[in-house]
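Supplementary material to the annual report.
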Amino acid sequence: DTEVTQTPKHLVMGMTNKKSLKCEQHMGHRAMYWYKQKAKKPPELMFVYSYEKLSINESVPSRFSPECPNSSLLNLHLHALQPEDSALYLCASSQAGQGFGDQETQYFGPGTRLLVL
Amino acid sequence: AQSVTQLDSQVPVFEEAPVELRCNYSSSVSVYLFWYVQYPNQGLQLLLKYLSGSTLVKGINGFEAEFNKSQTSFHLRKPSVHISDTAEYFCAVRSTNAGKSTFGDGTTLTVKP
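Predicted assembly:
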């Protein structure tokens, strides 16, 4: 099973709302990632968790708050977003994230399409 | 630091014709190389990867790529494309000492009947 699941598929929220995106994998991967993708652009890395600890934060605004409650789950909490935050949010996982060959392959979920009004 | 350049932003091609999508990279360290495909309104799917060993890599859906270290290239090829290959294709590199992946800007492949 090489599946990463993400919920919800679509989300519309106002600028004062609080919402969360969820990501789940059951491949035993210990590295998980959040990416943001605008239309016709490549994914941009936001956060990396390695062994449930935040290892990379790409200077993301604090209105985005990641959480890794356990090795299978990754959340992205959203609060006071701006219209320019509208995008496809992709979750990915890899086996170790520590530079060991095939363990570096990232598996992506289908994404959550977010619209901020 | 590492960077990826996909030399063609759009590639139109007729069905059953061969196609090559070009990718060049630069990095001060050894890298792993990946090609991903993204169909409309979907996430990224791994097509193929180069980690080590044979420089010719075969992937899913009949795609293959060749790693050329001297030219720092990792071009994607398919001998005969189908309408269903119409999608966005991303080349990505990741250093062998971990860290983050760097993606190219993508190439839109449009297969015409």
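The mean pLDDT of chain B is 93.
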